[in-house]
Every structure is written in C-alpha cells, then in structure tokens.
Write a structure and sequence with these properties.
This protein has one helix at residues 3-31; strands spanning 38-47, 52-61. With 64 residues, it is an alpha+beta fold. It has a two-stranded antiparallel sheet.
Length: 64
C-alpha cells in the first residue's frame, strides 16, 4: 500500500470515529440517558468494489 492510500484510509477512519462519537453523544443527550446505562452498538462497514462487509459490535456505557 502506498502513502497516499494509507493517508486517505486514516483520514476516512478518523472521520468515521469522530462523527460516530458525536452522533452517539448527541443521541445520549437527546434521550437523557441515565448514569450507568449501557447500550449495545453495531457498526457495519461496507466497501463497494471490494465485496467487503465488516461488522463490529460492542457495548457503550453512558458513564456515571
């Protein structure tokens, strides 16, 4: 993989991480999530042209 490819992938993944965190935090605020509450999360990444579907699951807690 060349440097341009690596940089574009890092930029995309950073954008995914930042915008996803903002969306989750906004949803928690809108819901008025109680301290200690946790939520099951799932991310599905697809890449057109590569026949890639990558699924990540986990638990997100709203904090205390």
């Amino acid at each position: 993989m060349n440097d341009d490819f690596n940089m574009s992938m890092r930029k995309f993944l950073k954008q995914v991480g930042v915008t996803s965190q903002q969306a989750i935090e906004g949803a928690l605020r809108d819901k008025g999530a109680a301290p200690g509450q946790s939520y099951e999360a799932k991310v599905v990444l697809t890449v057109e042209g590569l026949d890639l579907e990558h699924v990540v699951t986990g638990k997100i807690g709203s904090g205390s």
